[in-house]
Amino acid sequence: MSETPLSLAEATAQMTAPGQMFEMDHATINGVEMRIWKHAPANLRQILDTSLNHSNRDFLVYEEERFTFEEHYRIAATLAHRLQAAGVQKGDRIAIAMRNLPQWVFAFWGAMVLGGVVVPLNAWWTSEELAYGLTDSGSSVLFVDEERLERLRKQLDHLPDLKTIVVISDDPHRPAHIDATHERIELIGFDEYLGRVDAAATLPDVVIEADDDATMFYTSGTTGKPKGAVGSHRNAISNLMNLFFIGQRATLRFGTGNHDADGKSIQNAGLLNVPLFHATGCLAVMVVNTASGGKMVMMHHFDAGNALALIEKERLTMIGGVPTIAMQILDHPDFKKFDTSSVRTVSYGGAPAPPELVKRIQAAFPVGQPGNGYGLTETSAAVCLNSGPDYVERPDSVGPAVPVCDVAIVPEEFEGEEPTPDLPRGPSVVGEVWIKGPNVVRGYWHKPEATAKSFSKGWLHTGDIGRIDDDGFIYIVDRAKDMIIRGGENVYSVIVEAAIFEHPDVADCAVIGVPHPTLGEEVAAVIVLRPGRIVEAEEISRHVAQRLAKFEVPTRVFFRTLALPRNPQGKVLKRELRDTLLEQIEGRA
Predict the structure, then answer these.
(1) Which of 44, 95, 249, 490 is 20 to 30 A from 130 (CA-CA)?
(2) pLDDT of 44 over the 80 cut
């Protein structure tokens, strides 16, 4: 590294020059021409194949279980052959509904290399929500842990496409508890389904194209039902290349990276603090570690004290997730009792990060580089990342977009299909963030109207409000209007509102997020009751809890006698409502 660090533009130009690893090219994707990474792998199957280059390294660590890259590869390859023998074909949907376990990773890769479309379902969903995801996706095979099986059991008669449920035991020392069988759906334990693992197993011979469907992550729906965002192999690979580019550009500019005092390379080792059923956990963490030879350490549930113990024991180089995870680790009373000197990166996303967190990270981890990124399910995770000195200088920015992505700031009232040259520009211009690039998914599964509303000519209309400064750094000033981020978990207002409206005494309601000291935000409901009705806040919470997952239940309920504020089109003015509510909360404090 030179004494004077390269500028962002200089480093980008150097890395994307002809013949370099991050050289760009052009391709037509779904009828739209866009920039792509010229030397990117063709599909995710190639990523699993190249993981054998790290064969003897630890890949997955979960409590007393430990799997090397080669052990993982042979298990995934064997599982792919089992699925193929059971009739699973390219394009079939294979769902996964479980907490973070090694078998989650086995199932993902076993299905992926067969050309299957992996459908990660939210493990916190209720029985009804899980059944919706399975029915909507048409999944024929489900990998599930024992807790999710029991939650789903009463729905089995209503899942016509589901043929097989593979059950993972909560205890690796015993077979999975299946209990009652089903007359139509085969229920079988994971170990029995997998059978003997061939020490020389290779992947089934399946041709997979870059734009073949690969994943279906569920996100919100405008009618109260989640939507399956259909991602391709190219989308996932583009995200992988995006993150590699960001990391190597930081190394080129600032000399960051995993090297010891002698300059010897250190294995990346990260603590998995986000669910694998999120695009971040799956694509930005798991796929990246598979490709780069990084160790992924899982926890049964997050606990800051246990996390500190794992940092010391496993010599973790990276911790992250959402800002609250980092804060809980820093705030732990025994923080200084543990050796955390191995930590090189503390990155997070998915929720606003207080700028003072940057200073705390620098003080706690002298060689640790803070980072904050931005992306969505529909962008296959990463669009940008702000890290190192850039983040210290601009702690309220999420960084510049990667070179293959276009980001535009569009007025909320704009009606065109793609940004036009006459749109206002400049660091003071605030509007909706639109994104175009090879990491943007093609649309929503079997929902043409929702797809048409959010996608046009390759551009994703994020719903987030932002601005871009003169150096290309992006600032998110307000998030998607109907989404609350509670401890890193997306809560979609429209879904919670739909549940509240089912209460017979509710005339009108709006759900918004209000600040919480550790979760980032908590779910608040503002309710107008029908004339003459009296309802307690606890009753509303119980009502929602019977219909939705725990993280979606309002923890704050406010009753209002005046009508909710609305614009001429009848939409609730949630920003105005939030401001009024915050004044009310602060007045009570």
Answers:
(1) 44
(2) yes
